[in-house]
Write a structure and sequence with these properties.
The complex is a heterodimer of chains A (260) and B (411). Helix content of chain A is 37%, strand content 22%. Chain A is α/β, with parallel strands linked by helices and 260 residues long. Chain A has a domain of 160 residues: P-loop containing nucleotide triphosphate hydrolases (Rossmann fold, 3-Layer(aba) Sandwich). Chain A has a 6-stranded mixed β-sheet, with helices on both faces. A 4-stranded antiparallel β-sheet of chain A has the order 2-1-4-5. The radius of gyration of chain A is 18 Å and the shape is globular. With 411 residues, chain B is mainly α. Chain B has a domain of 285 residues: ABC transporter involved in vitamin B12 uptake, BtuC, CATH 1.10.3470. A two-stranded antiparallel ribbon of chain B has the order 1-2. The chains are: A alpha/beta (260), B mainly alpha (411). The interface between A and B is large, with 39 and 39 residues.
Chain lengths: 260, 411
């Protein structure tokens, strides 16, 4: 299988005991239909209060990792653990109950529903109205557009605004693990900065974040650990600042030399 | 829920203002115009509602002859059926073409209970509704396993099965000979009978509309609509899609069944071909689509239009199939030109004459800058309001020239 020794999954994580990881993907093999395997023995661990960022060229399997982790795609082999509980083969609806939320790539607002309905659906599993009110105030404060367009149909918003509604929706619950697929897609630089600021804030609150991002440099600046994916495995992983500083990696995967 | 969210919306806005200068640029003072417009349109809809209700209630006295009155009963019956259909079709987007199954079951259930158990008509009506619920649960569980075109076909299959059963089971249902249902008010003359049932149907319709309205504003309703938009996404947000769809389906069957039962008591003569016809089911869909499935009064409006048209064609062309051709043409026109129905189409027409809403931002760059300055000033303390306003106004002069600087106004 793996001809080269598996790179230590993630610097900090590999030192920690297995049970302390909020999310563990162990030796995952996965693919679509009869096509060749996309993931070939991938192992990623996300400890609490850590942002792990997956980077790598197109087709390396970054999005597939998130699909497997969220239960949308069943792995052919390997195991998935959320907070120590084996959830391999669980569907995406159950995953939410285990404390894992997945923010999908692209636009996934309910277009024919109001912004309010979209955001409140994010708190569907929350029963306490007080908590919901608090979260609504919180997300409206964070993404003002959400408050401004509260009564409008989400489909009438621009792409970037819809993205913010999606974020607001995903922040209505406070999950243990968040999977973020391309959070900066279609956002202006200022909103992107806010999103990453929010990612950092979630991390500081103890959430484990697994992030996939094309804007690799920007993402690694926020992330604690970077994993470079290639050919369906973790090629190299380590503390994000080290990866950012590595000139070879920069050349190969991050596009150009490190900024400044 | 709407009111709550409105409250929290404004709470969120004030909260962001409290955070001081760093976030003040995001505070957009909601212009008064939309709120005034909303209040205005609310007053208009309330007035329309009152006028509409008054018209309905006085119709039996306005109606020039018993025939027109009986046509009114038929149209109200259509409105009940179509509104019942809309509990499923409108909220979840599952198009059932076989809802005549529940119309027929409600009608035959009532008739058969009166015939065999010799219970009073309205007791039979309630019992038949319970039977409809009991049948719709397993059928719903089976049918809702599939989506889209498959669901449509399953719904049609169900009504066809019932048609065959009620036609062939002569000893029990009377088969094609039909089933006579005794009148619940034997003392009433025909026009009075129509009048009584007109009010009964109106009451049932009102109850159905209130139920739909309540669901529309509830968390349950929001979840159903999310199923209509994207069932998988709804599921991933934790919406128990299967259970919710089933509840909507059973509610829909219940209202339709109640409409059928009332029809049986009113008309007094049941025939399987009419009760379990795909045509009746199609009319429900056509009426709801015509009026607008996302609107409370959509199916009612559709029933009014289609019902009057059908009666007219039957009157004018007798026993020909012209009314079917007309219904088909109408369906084509609706799908092509008003896919969302009459109510949204008219709403869009009215919106054309209203001031345009800007799509990107409610305020211009200059206004935004001015607001920021103003909130800056208030954030630094209202110690000397006059000075602050003086400062703001001196700044204003420079704002106009600065406003085109993109750096200053980027959010």
């Amino acid at each position: 299988m793996a001809s080269e020794p598996m790179a230590a999954a993630s610097g900090a994580a590999s030192n920690a005991a297995a049970s302390t990881n909020l999310l563990e993907l162990n030796d995952i093999e996965a693919g679509y239909g009869r096509a060749a395997l996309v993931l070939r023995g991938l192992t990623v661990q996300v400890p609490p209060a850590t942002v792990v960022c997956l980077v790598g060229p197109n087709g390396a399997g970054k999005s597939t990792v998130l699909k497997v982790a969220s239960g949308m795609l069943a792995p052919r082999s390997g195991s998935i653990l959320v907070d120590g509980v084996d959830v391999t083969g669980t569907n995406s609806q159950r995953m939410l109950k285990h404390g894992l939320a997945h923010v999908l790539q692209g636009h996934s607002v309910f277009r024919e529903m109001t912004v309010a309905e979209n955001v409140l659906l994010g708190a569907f599993t929350v029963k306490d109205q007080k908590v919901i009110d608090e979260r609504v105030a919180f997300v409206q404060n964070l993404f003002p557009i959400v408050g401004e367009r509260w009564k409008q149909l989400a489909g009438l918003l621009s792409g970037g605004q819809q993205k913010q509604v999606e974020f607001a929706r995903s922040l209505m619950v406070s999950p243990k693990v968040v999977l973020l697929d391309e959070p900066s897609m279609g956002l202006d630089p200022k909103t992107t900065a806010k999103v990453f600021e929010q990612v950092a804030r979630m991390r500081d609150a103890g959430t484990a974040v697994l992030l996939v991002e094309q804007n690799a440099r920007r993402a690694l600046e926020t992330a604690d650990i970077g994993c470079v994916l290639d050919l369906g495995r973790v090629h190299i992983s380590g503390p994000a600042p080290e990866l950012l500083a590595d000139p070879t990696l920069g050349e190969l995967y991050l596009g150009g030399r490190p900024a400044s | 829920m709407r009111n709550d969210s409105e409250r929290t919306a404004s709470a969120g806005r004030t909260a962001s203002a409290d955070l001081g200068p760093a976030l003040t640029e995001t505070v957009v003072v909601a212009p008064d115009a939309p709120r005034r417009r909303r209040r205005w349109s609310r007053a208009v809809s309330l007035a329309l509602l009152v006028v509409g209700a008054a018209l309905v209630l006085s119709f039996p006295f306005i109606a020039p002859n018993p025939y027109i009155l009986s046509a009114g009963v038929v149209i109200l019956n259509y409105a009940v059926l179509s509104t019942g259909w809309n509990f499923m079709g409108g909220f979840t987007g599952y198009i059932s073409l076989g809802h005549a199954a529940y119309f027929g079951l409600g009608a035959y259930g009532t008739g058969l209970i009166v015939k065999y158990l010799e219970l009073p008509g309205f007791v039979a009506w309630v019992l038949a509704a319970l039977v409809v619920v009991a049948i719709s649960v397993p059928v719903g569980i089976a049918a809702l396993r599939v989506r889209g075109a498959s669901f449509v076909i399953v719904s049609i299959a169900f009504v066809l099965i019932l048609l065959l059963v009620f036609q062939s089971w002569r000893e029990f249902t009377g088969g094609s000979e039909g089933l006579i249902v005794p009148r619940p008010f034997p003392d009433l003359l025909r026009p009075e009978h129509h009048r009584a049932f007109f009010y009964l149907f109106a009451g049932l319709l009102a109850a159905a509309l209130v139920a739909w309205w309540v669901i529309d504003r509830s968390k349950f309703g929001t979840a159903l609509k999310s199923i209509r938009e994207d069932e998988d996404k709804a599921r991933s947000l934790g919406v128990p899609t299967t259970r919710y769809k089933l509840i909507a389906y059973v509610l829909s069957a219940l209202v339709t069944g109640l409409g059928g039962g009332l029809y049986a008591l009113w008309f007094g003569d049941l025939d399987p071909i009419f009760q379990f016809s795909i045509l009746i089911g199609s009319y429900m869909v056509l009426m709801a689509l015509l009026g607008g499935v996302r609107h409370l009064f959509g199916p009612l409006l559709g029933a009014l239009i289609v019902g009057i048209a059908l009666e007219y064609f039957k009157l004018e062309f007798g026993d020909t199939q012209f009314h079917l051709v007309a219904a088909g043409l109408l369906l084509g026109v609706v799908v092509l030109f008003m896919p969302d129905g009459v109510i949204p189409a008219v709403g869009q027409l009215i919106d054309r004459f209203r001031p345009q809403q800007t799509s990107i931002r409610d305020v211009s760059a200059a206004e935004l800058l001015e607001q920021n300055r103003r909130s800056d000033a208030s954030a630094t303390g209202a110690a000397d309001a006059r000075e602050a306003s003086g400062e703001a106004s001196t700044r204003d002069a420079s704002d106009v020239s600065d406003a085109s600087d993109p750096k200053e106004v980027t959010r």
